[in-house]
Amino acid sequence: MSSAVDNEKILQFLPFSSVISSSFWHKLTQMKIDVYALNDEPVEITGYYTNQSISSRLPACLNVDYSSFENRQVSDAVGTNGILCQGLLQNTNTLEAFKDINKQTAINKCGEQIWNDILSGAALSNPSLLTRFLLLTFADLKKYQFYYWFAFPTLVFPSKILLNDDPKEVDKVLTKEELLQFQQAYDEFKSSYGQSAFVVEKNTELGYKCHPLKELANLKDIMWIGFCDPSSLPTNPGWPLRNLLALLAHHHKERLVGLSILCWRDGVRDGQRRVGSSLLIEIKDVVYPGETDSIPKCLGWEKNERGKLGARTVNLSNSMDPERLAESAVDLNLKLMKWRLLPELNLDLIQNTKCLLLGAGTLGCYVARTLMAWGVRHITFVDNGRVSYSNPVRQSLFGFDNCLNGGQPKAESAANSLRKIFPGMMSRGIDLRIPMPGHYVTDAEEVEKDVQMLADTIDEHDVVFLLTDTRESRWLPSMLSAYRGKLAINAALGFDTYLVMRHGQREPWNPGQVQSEKSKGVMRGALAGRQLGCYFCNDVVAPGNSTKDRTLDQQCTVTRPGISLIASGLAVELMVSVLQHPQGGNASAEISTDAMTTVQQHQQQELEKKEAINSSPLGVVPHSIRGFLHRHQQVLPATEAFFNCTACSPLVIQRYAEKGYAFLAEVFNDSDVLEQVSGLADLHKDIATIEDWDYPEESEGSTD
Amino acid sequence: MSSAVDNEKILQFLPFSSVISSSFWHKLTQMKIDVYALNDEPVEITGYYTNQSISSRLPACLNVDYSSFENRQVSDAVGTNGILCQGLLQNTNTLEAFKDINKQTAINKCGEQIWNDILSGAALSNPSLLTRFLLLTFADLKKYQFYYWFAFPTLVFPSKILLNDDPKEVDKVLTKEELLQFQQAYDEFKSSYGQSAFVVEKNTELGYKCHPLKELANLKDIMWIGFCDPSSLPTNPGWPLRNLLALLAHHHKERLVGLSILCWRDGVRDGQRRVGSSLLIEIKDVVYPGETDSIPKCLGWEKNERGKLGARTVNLSNSMDPERLAESAVDLNLKLMKWRLLPELNLDLIQNTKCLLLGAGTLGCYVARTLMAWGVRHITFVDNGRVSYSNPVRQSLFGFDNCLNGGQPKAESAANSLRKIFPGMMSRGIDLRIPMPGHYVTDAEEVEKDVQMLADTIDEHDVVFLLTDTRESRWLPSMLSAYRGKLAINAALGFDTYLVMRHGQREPWNPGQVQSEKSKGVMRGALAGRQLGCYFCNDVVAPGNSTKDRTLDQQCTVTRPGISLIASGLAVELMVSVLQHPQGGNASAEISTDAMTTVQQHQQQELEKKEAINSSPLGVVPHSIRGFLHRHQQVLPATEAFFNCTACSPLVIQRYAEKGYAFLAEVFNDSDVLEQVSGLADLHKDIATIEDWDYPEESEGSTD
Ligand SMILES: [Zn+2]
Ligand SMILES: [Zn+2]
């Protein structure tokens, strides 16, 4: 339309500079973990800029922060904090994906959207559609390293704007009085429409009046087209003017030449509103791109710190609260498991499960660690030992320092360790000796207190792990867990064998309920969880005083070290499988007369059984797992609760329910009482010979 | 013989007070662990007392210390340190056994021995036979608590000795000149005979002369019977006189009345020898016990601190060097395993095995812990990561503190942790990135250095654990381990599956040796260790660049937490089984087409196979263990080395042996090179279709 001359004044725009509040990253982290998961589709966010800067040393900032994720009406663009802009956030799952995104394609797509909003007139009604932005991110949440790249798409249409003169500050053009009048007109418009662009009309009667852009066609006395200008430079307007000019060039091409633009800057300094540095520019001529595609060229990727087109990074690991960093890092790891592999996994259920670990020895330490890795936050240890020098190499929550000066109490020391591993743990240690059948009680008052404490503690927890070093010390917690209907997980070690089992879980004892029915037989080759036996169900004698007169090597059960890791890992996986099973503790266990069949057979069977046995998303939920390291064998026996069991039978539970501690006191002083109450004694009379138990008797996990 | 009168002067003896040097307990601990094991038969030790005390405030001490365990000639009783006594140490295995020992029976037995030595005259020739003692101990080596009880058996024979007068100090009786003369006579006797009792003759010609006790019968001018007196009381002789009087009463009853006894005290004060406080006592009358058993009554159990007959305890945990305490406590635990369960276990072999752990992630941490529990002292980690916030809940050698400020380097942090657990560890961390096939090398010089470092490190170790988080990062160490003939143990995890395997172990590469023979077929359903494959033997493509463009969840392999404990436990147990196998790395592995048969079948098979397969004392030594937690299955496939393996085949090894880093550089830049060199590429041409690998492909253990 006009050829360039040497001293032509070309209109140039100050690009946006992005500003990301660290609160944005925190919120993104949370959204990634809680909402987006592995979804990397673009999502809508908002940003904002202000036209309030009154210092020309500040760049034109486009800000995003935690509130960017809120669902906001961008049509009400001019809020108290500034002018809202609609943005599109694409958070990739990998750095490679971040890099691989075709940047031109992405910005073109956004440009197309803006162009369509121009063509359709939507942008006339809602000028904030012109200030869309793109934000591309990759959040490396392991390192709290964030990669990001903003684009502020702008259409190259017109391709060049020539000015009549250098931009002038509005207070050089208007009188103070006039400026004040305009200011009032603008405020009125702002409170009515809240839009970031407007038409300024001035007629002699009414003075200044601001109108929405869409009324432009009907207005005659147009003085200026105004827009909220993020720039504070005395020489250049900010980026939003570019797409605004594209809009005007499309809809009001004829008005463009000669048009005056008000770059409205509306700040406060020294308690005074300052609008005088708003710029006025007057368009002398306009150059349009040659005949090209239907959509104008689009550009606007932000340059990085080095002035190159490229992404920026920020690392927040130092600025964030380390405990919260740990919190979300641990959370993320588990969420990844869920997102990727097990969408049906209920992580909250695991996290909220309160676990009581009886014994803070080799098994207790490894079980606690495995629970933590699963996200369990509540772990309580019960142990009455102190950390000794031989412990740390086997008991993974203790170090050499814990052994000094006689050794720290194990339960407390283990609980402290958990918090040193992960500050989010709610861990507690209780120094308590578990009273045992047949272990004569000398201080009855003390023991009664201990029993009460143990019973209360079991009440406060959801799962009880039996990890002590003697068979007898498992009796009381087994009985109390059965009485209170808690899930009990048992792990016991031999030299190179292990037993990991869940006790049959029934409802808490209710005297009104008939619980003392004998077995009703077994359906479909599986036992319901409530039908399963406990650790003592296979015993035909009461747990007695087995620690008496054991030699040094027997006192400390010697096991192949690998065994304790295997048993601990299995014990926790068993608990998690139960928790994730739709029927929880009542999950059935297959009765496998021959657990050792081939993988292929099992795979077939699995299909067949899927209907019959409602398995956990984590697979089968066996009653017990017995392993024999000597030949690397493992069997999964499931056995029914024994009507005369000394620990879980209704006969024993009922006696405890009725007599309370008085019954226990008898048992502690003489374990034969248990055989009487459970009916075992009668059974002994009935049976001449007793079948031998099939497996080598395991010794117990040691807390020594 | 005479009736008691009111003011009769009854001879009373100062009992021994036992003094146990802490060096005694240290030596006992060592003897218990290294020699006695569970043997609780009494063993001979020595103690000593001195007659050198010159202060009456000191008790008559019988001392035992580290030297008590040395084999010493007690006949030379009077040494420079004092008078040696023969003792019998009985160290029980339990506190109960300690308590249960019948104290009267024990002391009677010792009394009988003394009496027999009196009757036989042996005690006349060797008076030290009269000062036997008993020491009963129980060493609770977990708590460094020692229970002990001394007995100084003395025969009540005669039952009462009456004196003419109170004991007199010898310098009140002899002139200075006379005392000096006697002293010279005693010194002569001491240097000739070194006995603790003697006969003092005085005749006018020769002056004083001391004779051995056995010459008593032949001597006439007997002035005194002397003995080295541990007492320094001015009123009472010490305990040894009692049995000496019994000896005299039996052999020289007729001489007893009127006999003078020299209680010889021979000390030094202010640099001056002092013998003047030696006592002289004169026997007025003797009362014998009524006709009783053939053996006189025996007494002499030491009273405890409270003046009661009872045991004493001492706890050395505070006085001992804690690091040495830890050392011996850890040692003891392993020794107990050997003593009680596996006498053929070679613990030294394990302790001296140098283990290199490639990867200090979940697997690396648990493997290291399990190795420590087995007594391994040399552990080196290789990892190039830093500890991040998500690590500690899964990686058991790290805590929250290790994550702060960007995280400590993992290898070093893990190595430090081991020493905090057990100061005796020789642990090291190497921050090194293992170069991988197909991962283009940008800084060749750096990578060449890393390769050299890795090769040197593998050379310095005996066992290489492959625990990194990608398949490709296992290639170089697999190849180098094969080249150097090291035992390689591999552990890899899937979400709920694991693979633990040993690589076939052959001799270090020797170009002169023909190694490139193809399989010679399999004998007896088992493969020798050298015939077994490696991790890559089942692959039909070279390890490539699999980490490229993995999403967040794939980058960090997500596994059920229990899996890593199970795999780590199994990996270490596999290593220990190999080490303990008579054929070591060449131990055969059964080829089990159906590893899942019943326990019963296996038990039968085991008997049958005992001859065929020379199993480790720890049981079978499988080639690999594949576990599937979903159904709690485990199989033990053994596969033969693949002639075209990209990692362990002679073709690849030979190329490396010839070209060194130049070959590796090619591989790092393009993994196809491996397919060429190994012959896989040719094979691909030959085979139209490739059978699918039967098991779900496992992902790898993560160090993230
Ligand atoms: Zn039961
Ligand atoms: Zn191989």
From TrEMBL, chains A, B:
GO CC annotations on file: cytoplasm; phagophore assembly site
Molecular function per GO: Atg12 activating enzyme activity; Atg8 activating enzyme activity
Keywords: Autophagy, Cytoplasm, Protein transport, Transport, Ubl conjugation pathway
Domain of life: Eukaryota
Biological processes annotated in GO: autophagosome assembly; cellular response to nitrogen starvation; mitophagy; piecemeal microautophagy of the nucleus; protein modification by small protein conjugation; protein transport
InterPro entries xrefs: Atg7, Atg7_N, Atg7_N_1, Atg7_N_2, ThiF/MoeB/HesA, ThiF_NAD_FAD-bd, Ubiquitin-activating_enz
Keyword 4Fe-4S found: no
Pfam family, one: ThiF
Family per record: Belongs to the ATG7 family.
Role of this protein: E1-like activating enzyme involved in the 2 ubiquitin-like systems required for autophagy.
Record's protein name: Ubiquitin-like modifier-activating enzyme ATG7
